[in-house]
UniProtKB/TrEMBL annotation:
Source organism, top-level taxon: Bacteria
GO molecular function: transferase activity
Matching InterPro entries: Hexapep, LbH_gamma_CA-like, Transf_Hexapept/Carb_Anhydrase, Trimer_LpxA-like_sf
Transferase is among the record's keywords: yes
Species the sequence originates in: Thalassotalea agarivorans (Thalassomonas agarivorans)
Key words, A-Z: Transferase
Protein name per Swiss-Prot or TrEMBL: Carbonic anhydrase or acetyltransferase, isoleucine patch superfamily
Length: 182
């Protein structure tokens, strides 16, 4: 079986090199996934009323929903969903029309809403809710509902942000190698 990769109004997802897309994933419309990224089981992503961009070495884990906000008179650009490089999106997250920088970990079950901007090098704790139009400053841990800035990240936590992405690159390489054997 192959993942469901569908067009919306003639636009198909664009998938980079050496990228793993699980067979139980649905991708629709204007989605671009960069090299060495991985999209795991039961992820649904709809780039229909705006676009989705996923950076190099980023991973989107099981059960996550990715969506966008349509353009309107009040918000002429709407809110696309932009995920930078080396980002780890935990299981069962909801990302909706937000922008994530580089080297971010979004904990399991977190929700990041329309217009939110997450700068580089940020931890978002499991179950955290980031309300619309909030900015999460670089170098901090955020937790809670609604989210609160808790403390600066320690050096080892900042190093882990990159390592987490690398771990998923290794894992997706194992999965790709397994597929080649079949």
């Amino acid at each position: 079986m192959k993942p469901r990769i569908e067009s919306y109004k003639g636009t198909y997802p664009n998938i980079g090199q050496n990228t793993y897309i699980d067979k139980d994933v649905i991708l629709v419309g204007d989605i671009s996934i960069d090299d060495d990224a991985s999209i795991w089981p039961l992820v649904a992503a709809r780039g229909d009323v705006n676009y989705i961009r996923i950076g190099k070495r980023s991973n989107v884990q099981d059960g996550t929903i990715l969506h966008v906000t349509r353009k309107s008179k009040k918000n002429p650009d709407g809110f696309p969903l932009i995920i930078g490089d080396d980002v780890t999106i935990g299981h069962k997250c909801m990302l909706h029309g937000c922008t994530l920088g580089n080297r971010i970990l979004v904990g399991m079950g977190a929700i990041v809403m329309d217009g939110a901007i997450v700068e580089d090098d940020v931890f978002i704790g499991a179950g955290t809710v980031v309300p619309p139009n909030k900015t999460l400053k670089s170098g901090y841990l955020y937790v809670g509902n609604p989210m609160k800035q808790v403390r600066p990240l320690r050096e080892e936590e900042i190093a882990f942000l990159k390592q987490s992405a690398i771990n998923y690159v290794w894992l997706k390489d194992d999965y790709l190698a397994e597929l080649e054997v079949k």
